[in-house]
Structures
1.
Amino acid sequence: MSNSTFEPRLVGFLCNWCSYTGADLAGTARMTYAPNIRIIRVMCSGRVDPQFVLKAFREGADGVLISGCHPGDCHYQEGNYKALRRYKLLSRMLEQLGIEKERFRLEWVSASEGARFQHVVNEFTEQIRRLGPLNFKFDGGSHEQA
Amino acid sequence: MSKPKVAFYWCASCGGCEEAVVDLAEDILKVVEAVDIVFWPVALDFKKKDLEAMADGSIAVSFINGSVRLSEQEEMVHLLRRKSQLVVAFGSCSHLGGIPGLANFWNKETIFRRAYFTTPSTVNPDGVVPQEKVIVEGKELTLPKFFETVRALDQVIDVDYYLPGCAPPRDLILNAVGAILEGKLPPKGAVLSPNKSLCDDCDRNKTKPEKLTIKEFKRPWEVFLDPEKCFLAQGVICMGPATRTGCDERCIEANMPCRGCFGPTDQVYDQGAKFLSALASLIDFKDEKEIEKIVQTIADPAGTFYRFSLPKSILGRRKMEAIK
Amino acid sequence: MSQRITIDPITRLEGHGKIEIFLNDAGDVERAFLQVPELRGFEQFAVGRPVEEMPRITPRICGVCPTAHHMAATKCVDAVFHVEPTPTARKIRELIYNTFMMEDHTLHFFFLGGPDFVVGPQAPAAERNILGVLGKVGLEVGGQVIRVRRECRDIINYLGGKVIHPVCGLPGGVSKGLDEEHRVKFLETARYAVEFARFALKIFDDVVLKNKEYVDLVVGDAYKLTTYYMGLVDEKNKVNFYDGLIRVVDPEGKEFAKFKPADYLEHVAEHVEPWSYIKFPYLKKIGWKGFIEGKETSIYRVAPLARLNASDGMATPLAQQEYERMYQVLGGKPAHNTLAFHWARLIEALQAAEAMVTLLEDKEITNPDIRRIPTETPTEGVGVVEAPRGTLFHHYKTDERGLVTEANLIVATMNNSAAITMSIEKAAKAFIKGGKVSEGLLNLAEMAFRPYDPCHACGTHALPGDMPLVINIYNSRRELVEQLKKE
């Protein structure tokens, strides 16, 4: 039940060597992409602690993206494989916690793939817009509505 | 010189923490001699009114176990906080939410529906449900309110110290009580158990290979459990790496893997997420399909990694609207 | 002017409990309610959990009898996986279980229920606790009680990992075996336990049975409740705590039903009231008849006296002798005298201790074959044991991966919830008349529920001092008129 005025709030963890550079490229080449994403630069997608993702959702994000180097190209050799494994397991756990797996994404975007970055962000934004806001709340106590 | 006043209280508790105190056996007499127990519903006569009549801050320390599930418990812990100088969260439930915290995968409606309607032995044609206030034969009876969400103690009141474990082991309790009586406490907010992970103290740690990797996960019922080898090295999920030490590895000694009741070390906020991170790192595959396959064999990620700590996890509960 | 008496909190009930007593205009008791303001939702949050974790989750229902839940859950998981434990694993489980019954029952008698008898209902509150008991029977006994309790709990600690929330149960077996060194050591404990159980019965004999006043109280009407009785029995209809068939006898002692645990749903149903979070089990084939006793009732009781009533005898020789003696004194079977639960409890403790000895004398128990790996797809199962406080039912359904899809639990004390409320009402009606509320009421009301040993029997009277009851008397304008408190 999404409404056309809902603006998704997205958080993106982008690895320094590939994805962040790719995003920069999109910017400098003036490839327009949805402004909904808040980008956080990390040195490697393998640096992304699942706690970051959970915190983002808890603090109001409607969608979280992790983006890193393509398999085999990681600046630190294996970091992106760790990210891939964590992503798979975390997706499962998020589903158990009521957060649809469409809200959490892992993408590979290289330094030269500005267009790809543009595409990913635009598509993700629309997907979350259709899904609607997450509105995560930790209710409890005598102030409860229910 | 008057003895320090001490109070014990239980919220949504199984009573195991109370038993742990009784299990101090002879040692409990030394404690009883040294303090003046002014409130302990399971054992002594004092009532809420007596507590209310005490001066604020006149209780030296209150030990509170159990998580906060009902309105009566919320009121009592606020009252005890006012009346006490120190509040110690005693046991996993008050520290992290504990096993009752698993109810945060559900809410009041689903829990009531199961308990009072859909359980196969329940016969309830009139749709009766326990009420906070009801008139029975002209008489008014009340029950405390059941909240949607279970909370750990520090999500309701300010907590000074935490005594971890389900139930906290004897030595930990004695050390903590001793430290309080002697005034030799660490800075406020400390968990009263060493700040290392279980693996550091576990006998099986030395059996971990140089590079520990997992190619296949095994549930404890599926395999013969080697009584000497690290569980993770056997492919059996053990929360040791993400769990604080101090329990003497009692479950490990009984040849069963750790389930994390002591909670995380100081450096970690969300025990389950941290363990997920560690476990994922151990998976020995690079191919996406292989990874997908092995991840599917982990039976219940959220319920295993957050077995004792769901309320205190970053999300704290499941989002219910997503359930169709 | 009608009045209302609130006893809040009562002690030794699962978490919290309160009693509300309503007087009519003449000052006689009209109704009494025992409200259990406690619910956590295990039956719902079990859903989604791997079923082999249930023996590690369900003990957190109760920290006083976690071993009972652990064992019921383990047996249930056996059933879900369609696997039987190895003979050695079964012996180890039976050892853990009987050890637990022995120490739990013993604790109750000396620290909790016993003081009612040993010191007496008319005794001052300050004496109605373990110290008062020791005053009557000698200080040395206290040391022995602590010793037997600790040694028994050491056995459970060793085999189960932790005595509060043991972990060793797996479908098809147990996780840890017993070596010869420990078999010999524990056998000593077992023999000591038998001696101690006999000694406890002797104390009961000396202090209670030789005292006419107490005997009158035991056999008297105020504490009598005519109900059905339920308990597990072996193939010879003898009392068994760990396994067997569920047998129900009617108020005259005739067998009413005998069924496999898996068929419990045909026989047991639960009723809901809006004034308590706890449910009220009753016999399904009769249907819910309300809170009544006698021939028309559908209420059944569980726990020590009920088990003895539902059986044809004890399974071990020394306990059997005591069983025969008890029924002789009480004037035949079944015995409806609620206070006799205390006596039956000690007889059960003796059987448990004798069973410990038999199991530990058998060298088979040190066999390393303690696990049978399940091979069948898990589906659904029921596991039943006799907890100290009554018949305990665990029922799980799973998907083909063994993740719980549904759980149903009927928890020991719960079976007695209707009986407890009725017992309190009956005692209140017997002792409160014409609006006169006396000190004796405090003692006598407590005595109505204590024999059932409602779950959470921990610590009360373990420390010297006050009787944990206050009675508030409110007039019909809800003003506090009088407060009676035991000093």
Note: Chain C touches chain B through 101 residues (CB under 8 Å).
2.
Amino acid sequence: MNNTKLKSLMINEEGFAFDPRTGNTYNISGVGLLVVNALKAGTQTAQVVDAIVERYDVDRRTADRDLEGFLNELERNRLIETEVAS
Amino acid sequence: MKRTIAVTGLNAGENPQPGPGVIRSLRRRYRDVRIIGLAYGTLESAIYAENSADMIYQIPYPSAGIDALLERLDYMLAREPIDLLIPTLDAEIQPLIGAQAELAKRGIEMCLPSIEAFHARSKERLHELTEGTKTSVPKSTSVFSTAALAKAAAGMRYPMMVKGPYYDARKVYTQDELISAFHAIMGEWGGPVIVQEFVSGEEFNIAAVCDGEGGMMASCAIRKSVRSEKGKGFGGIVVDDPELTCMGKQLIEKLNWNGPCELEFIQDETDGRYYLLEINPRFPAWIDFPSTFGYNLPAVLVDRLTGADSPSIPAQCPTGHFFLRHSSDISGRIEDLGRLSTFGEISLAKTGAVQ
């Protein structure tokens, strides 16, 4: 996953985010904020799932599915790029 | 030293002109500047606005020819000096490029592109301009006749854009609308009419002051966050996308552009690719927005023309600000309107520092 664009996202403590490349703004909820901050820091997705499970008391399968949905959302907004296997 | 600066394009109505924003920016920087507003009509809104021009002179339309303008300028110069002229309307630029020496003889300086650069950025030559650069242009054809129009449209899908050489852009969905738009634009602005593939997506603009040697002295990129029905930017937010910046720099370098300009791009919503829509040879109407937080492009231009030391600002406008256009009503006194209509000039002198 290429998170270069995500790294430029500016986020305040309340989860209001600004993408300086596009001028788009987002309101990111608690769990989303955890995910975005972790990905910006270069954390691998498996470790992000660990963090969700630990922090929000959900089973691993649910956390995994929700993370996948959120990553799709980030990709639709061109904040991450999933590398296509050749 | 007190400067007198003349500015054109004073109407801030539905299709706002850049003059009022340029004047506000100048007043933010220069406390003692004298502003002369050059108006074509008596109902250009900034004539009557607070903190606008100190003096208004009506001038002949560009279609009257440069001699008519020079004659009018000589009348003004017999009353007061004019140090600088900042034209803000597309149709004024070409005749003024040709008249630079005449104006310089009269002590009036301008900062304009070369005639080659001016033509190279015309809508019908954008494909040629972008060859060998990272910038793409939507598929487009310039036409002068309905026969050529039909041929051009046959190779494109609806909706498509129909544009005038200087102004006007209409989205058409059917052949009837296409023909109607062609005749309307030919009738109002003349040819060529540009038929262009429609790209759906967000619009991005870069306003810049360029040094005439291939560089941008200062630039501000925005995404239009609010667009009027006519596609005018009624809201915008400063952006910093290295890809967009790179394209802008490449084009300016290729043109060796001198003075102010505005590059308009659209980002295809399907693949995120930027397309160049046009390059305007003047400041945009939103030019006072970056000046409100100290990124004053008209002041960069004036300091360059006068050789004054410009406060140091980064080459690119910092992000973190947005604007929304806020329409309000300007009131005027009927005596002022009457005086301007009768004598072609009026001193309003309601100036003061813009807060």
Note: The CA atoms of residues 24 and 44 of chain A lie 25 Å apart.
